[in-house]
């Protein structure tokens, strides 16, 4: 079955209400869960696991930004790394870091990663999500404050829940003045902050996972220093989307800006450009000791296994030896080509003028020296589902993002660019979105006998025909 039919069928099957057909004799626990899920099924908004990978679908979604997974390069590097360990390794760490599991190979790889990132120490853990929670669990002491960019990733939001910090305040996305206001309020309301007797942890991301924009980190650091000159305001930066992509050899935003000494904690993810899995916490020895003592996530959990650490080492060796430079350059070239072609496209011009679509990152794109691989196409709420269906039928995978992943009243199609995208892919993507926009404009102006977009009509016809 072609991918889009399989996807539609699976999605539709999961949106069917379950609670009404359940018998009263079934356990109340399951009836209550199905009822909670039905609330979302009713709106066609139940989150589902997507069917199989399919490389024949044009990829504007995956996290394989540098194509290391698809090309087999990470697999080969990983096999080589494992081979270099000979027979003298065990699969499992057989314990947590504070007990049996702090094995030499893991520590050696951490030292190499710390050196690559110009950091005092590196802590490898199971995932980036887990790393963010672990950091927030440990480093904010009772009475401290966590101040976070309002568009922070879900892992930061979950981390806030487990933290004992007394204050948890957000500030307007990427706005140094808004950060200053929040910091100043804390300082004015509680003299302990002004004295330096309480700390403020400021959570930001190098590249925001939905907006695709880059943090004005230098400006933010200047604001924190201005309001708290005693150094009790420190940054935690999530480098999920910059790792492998920007900075020297893909080392991230902090190193691109030379701010290693200004940022207390950097969290790098290995599940994206590095085509591996795991999180890396870069920090000094004081923070490392704090993690070991206060993070139950890190210390009451088995240490990463040897194969996982080997795959991370393999990825870092590709980065640090410059073997990913071609892909990094190709990715930047692809994004530049996209902006250029978009702004010259006649259908897009009309759609942008009519307010049907917007691409904030296309504004003044030529002024930026580096680009992120995430480019959101902003659409009106509910249009994201139509456009997603339209793209999928055209064999393009680019995910729709709705509330609550993005703020209420907003919606987008999240385009993710890769080294393996071709110019033909990008032209085809632009033409396909352009054709959808024109179709929507024609419907909106009442110039078509159809009031329902073609993709939705095709979906309904397939459903009526039993997905044949
Ligand atoms: C900004 C950001 N932080 C954290 C994560 C989680 O990283 P990982 O996949 O390593 O758990 C992601 C991945 O979705 C992300 O985009």
TrEMBL record:
Gene3D superfamilies xrefs: Aspartate Aminotransferase, domain 1 (3.90.1150.10), Type I PLP-dependent aspartate aminotransferase-like (Major domain) (3.40.640.10)
Ranges of residues in domain Aminotransferase class I/classII large: 57-433
InterPro entries: Aminotransferase_I/II_large, AON_synthase_class-II, PyrdxlP-dep_Trfase, PyrdxlP-dep_Trfase_major, PyrdxlP-dep_Trfase_small
Biological process annotations from GO: biotin biosynthetic process
Keywords: Pyridoxal phosphate, Transferase
Cofactor(s) needed for function: pyridoxal 5'-phosphate
Any Pfam family: Aminotran_1_2
Record keyword Transferase present: yes
MF terms in GO: pyridoxal phosphate binding; transferase activity
Keyword Cytoplasm attached: no
Entry's family note: Belongs to the class-II pyridoxal-phosphate-dependent aminotransferase family. BioF subfamily.
Name of the protein this chain belongs to: 8-amino-7-oxononanoate synthase
């Amino acid at each position: 079955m072609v991918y889009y039919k399989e996807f539609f069928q699976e999605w539709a099957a999961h949106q069917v209400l379950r609670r009404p057909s359940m018998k009263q004799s079934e356990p109340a626990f399951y009836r209550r869960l199905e009822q909670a899920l039905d609330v979302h099924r009713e709106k066609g908004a139940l989150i589902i696991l997507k069917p199989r990978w399919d490389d024949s679908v044009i990829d504007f979604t995956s996290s394989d930004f540098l194509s290391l997974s698809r090309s087999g390069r990470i697999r080969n590097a990983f096999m080589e790394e494992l081979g270099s360990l000979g027979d003298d390794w065990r699969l499992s760490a057989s314990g947590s870091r504070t007990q049996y599991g702090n094995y030499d190979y893991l520590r050696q790889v951490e030292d190499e990663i710390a050196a690559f990132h110009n950091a005092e120490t590196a802590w490898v853990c199971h995932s980036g999500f887990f790393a963010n929670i672990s950091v927030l669990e440990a480093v904010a002491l009772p009475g401290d404050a966590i101040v976070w960019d309002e568009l922070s990733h879900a892992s930061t939001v979950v981390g806030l829940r487990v933290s004992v910090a007394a204050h948890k305040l957000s500030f307007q996305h990427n706005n140094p003045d808004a950060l200053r206001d929040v910091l100043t309020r804390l300082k004015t309301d509680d003299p302990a902050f002004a004295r330096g007797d309480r700390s403020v942890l400021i959570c930001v991301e190098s590249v925001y996972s939905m907006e695709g924009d880059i943090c004005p980190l230098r400006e933010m650091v200047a604001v924190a220093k201005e309001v708290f000159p005693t150094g009790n305001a420190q940054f935690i930066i999530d480098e999920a989307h910059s790792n492998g992509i920007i900075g020297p050899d893909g080392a991230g935003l902090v190193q691109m800006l030379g701010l290693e000494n200004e940022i207390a904690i950097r969290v790098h993810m290995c599940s994206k450009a590095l085509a591996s899995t795991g999180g890396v916490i870069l920090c000094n020895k004081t923070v490392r000791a704090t993690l070991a003592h206060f993070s139950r996530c890190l210390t009451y959990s088995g240490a990463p296994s040897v194969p996982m650490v080997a795959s991370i080492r393999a990825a870092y060796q590709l980065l640090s030896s410059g073997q990913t430079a071609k892909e990094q350059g190709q990715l930047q070239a692809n994004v530049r080509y996209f902006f250029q072609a978009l702004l010259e496209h006649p259908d897009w011009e009309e759609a942008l003028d009519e307010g049907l679509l917007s691409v904030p990152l296309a504004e003044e794109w030529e002024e930026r020296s580096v680009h992120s691989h995430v480019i959101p196409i902003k659409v009106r709420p509910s249009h994201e589902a139509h456009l997603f269906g339209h793209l999928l039928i055209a064999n393009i995978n680019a995910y729709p993002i709705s509330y609550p992943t993005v703020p209420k009243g907003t919606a987008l199609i999240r385009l993710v660019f890769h080294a393996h995208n071709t110019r033909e892919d990008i032209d085809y993507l632009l033409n396909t979105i352009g054709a959808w926009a024109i179709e929507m404009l024609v419907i909106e102006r009442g110039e078509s006998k159809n009031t329902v977009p073609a993709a939705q009509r095709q979906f309904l016809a397939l459903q009526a025909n039993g997905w044949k």
